[in-house]
Amino acid sequence: MFAAATKSFVKQVGDGGRLVPVPSLSEADKYQPLSLVVKKKRCFLFPRYKFTSTPFTLKDILLGNREISAGISSYQLLNYEDESDVSLYGRRGNHIVSDVGINVTGSDSIAVKASFGVVTKHEVEVSTLLKEITTRKINFDHSLIRQSRSSRKAVLCVVMESIRTTRQCSLSVHAGIRGEAMRFHFMDEQNPKGRDKAIVFPAHTTIAFSVFELFIYLDGAFDLCVTSVSKGGFEREETATFALLYRLRNILFERNRRVMDAISRSQLYLDDLFSDYYDKPLSMSDISLKEGTHIRVNLLNHNIPKGPCILCGMGNFKRETVYGCFQCSVDGQKYVRLHAVPCFDIWHKRMK
After folding, report:
1. Of the ranges 79-88, 101-110, 127-136, 174-183, which is most confident?
2. What whole-number distance in Å separates Cα of residue 38 and Cα of residue 187?
């Protein structure tokens, strides 16, 4: 009866599908803000999830004894009174009958009346909690963590808001026959005992709640999944390995891109040098043609093998030459390799 009433409340209040009805009156006190619940998918035939309460709070599974400083705000939500007819031939009617054990002999419907009165909403300050958890770690030795981690279907959740009653409330169920002018028409001779059931529960009873899923990393850090797009669970070793390889791939890709950009810039610089050389008419002012200047030599004649030109052989293509200059030296080497044209003249113009 209680479960049917809370489901009806959630269906009418809505809240974008985030609200979850409390399934049992005996567990209502376990769905308080910052309490932990386990979310499990029933099976592939049922898209809805099952939430199971635990005796733990978020603080219990964290390392250290520091209290969670995030506060809880409260305010009145609405005044809830509901009366509805439920057919015995529907799933909800069958559930209520099996739940309360009401006598439905000669009946085709049941009337459910829920009087919750003014209900209040209690919710955690999300922004404060998000700042605090950045410095906290999960205790993997906690029994709840070990058990949840061993099941791939289990997801740990934190209760972020709860809706509670403010006064003593009542639920009543009446079985009867649907009439034309009134909801039910009872005939005394056809109204055996057991057609009416009622329960009363105390004030401050939780009737609905909402949660944020937890995503727990291998190093103990964790995130709150504040949107329905992000999913909770435990980071698996194969997932962490794949993520590491993906990051390394991106790093290598970026490094190769930078190297290619540098090579491209150096290539453009050399092209500009050669363009300036070839566009300028050859004249007697060239250094290589002046008397007493450095002289081109064939290095093979001095038992020096062919090698990359010091000016244009360091780019993308290793341009090699047998010519060079003995009057120049680089890095302790008593000669430099230079193409006869145009690198020899360009080199000496730069060195001038």
Report:
1. 127-136
2. 48
CA distance 7 to 2: 9
Please, which pLDDT band fits residue 134 given cuts at 50, 70 and 90? Answer: confident
pLDDT band at 211 (very low <50, low <70, confident <90, very high): very high
For residues 325 and 170, what is the distance between their CA atoms, to the nearest angstrom? 105
Cα–Cα distance list, 331 to 57, 328, 334, 335 (Å): 69, 10, 9, 10
Q: How far, CA to CA in Å, does 247 sit from each of 35, 240, 243, 253?
A: 36, 11, 6, 10
Distance CA 197, CA 174 (A): 7
Q: Which two tokens stand for residue 184?
A: 């039910």
3-class secondary-structure state, position 172:
strand
Tell me the pLDDT band of 101, cut-offs 50, 70 and 90: low
Q: At what angle do helices 343-351 and 237-279 cross, to 10 degrees?
A: 90
Q: Over 80: is that where the pLDDT of 104 sits?
A: no
Which residue carries 């599908």 as its tokens?
17
Q: The whole model's pTM is what?
A: 0.60
CA 138/CA 64 separation, integer angstroms: 10
- CA dist 182 and 209 (Å) reads 36
Nearest one of 146, 145, 137, 82 to 114, comparing CA atoms: 82
CA distance 149 to 136: 19
Is the Cβ–Cβ distance between 218 and 240 less than 8 Å? yes
Residue type, 74: S
Q: Which residues pair with 212 in a beta bridge?
A: 158
